[in-house]
Amino acid sequence: MPGQLKKRKAIATVLTTMIILIASVVLGSGVVMYGTSLFQTGAQSQSISTQGVKLWVNATDSKGTSWGAASVRNTGDKLEGVDKINVRSLAVPYSNWYYANTTNSLANIQDQFIYGSNDGAGILKNYSTSGAYDTCTGNTASPAFRIDVDGAGVGHPTMCFISANGPISLKPGESVIIYFHLPTGVLDTIDSGQSTSVALYAGKLGAPVTVTIANP
Predict the structure, then answer these.
(1) Residue 5 pLDDT more than 80?
(2) Do both 25 and 65 map to the same domain?
């Protein structure tokens, strides 16, 4: 009997040791995986770049019809949403935003954005230097307006603008061109030629830039 008890104790000790070793390996693997996950998340960067910012106010229009334009590109590693445009610290509502899809925006991101003309009620009309346009496709097949800086079939494609109804999502590397109609009273006819601030944000990303207000 004493011999059998010793054998049982020895087996129990071996089993306990094996269980402890297995548990240590599992816990160690979990720590390594958790640490790797934290490292990968922390390594992702968030940034956007804004360029070509324009502001226009019609110096001869008693309504003070005014518009702005800008391109935004997601230069980081995470999905971002352009969710705020401020002019003179006043927010431009989403209903006044018009944007070209990613294909148009990437090709035209360095263009000199132009105003063209409005329909008398303040909304921009179609504009092309040649009077012709490329075909709008996909989600821009029925645009609010089109702008082509070099004519159909030449150089860059026509920018086909559709109405926004909320933040504009951009995957890493994607860009967007936004034209925005300023609410009445933000700019007036006497502001033509003056400088003011414009800021486009994606969450906390973004900063104001100083722009000279042009007369279209």
Answers:
(1) no
(2) no
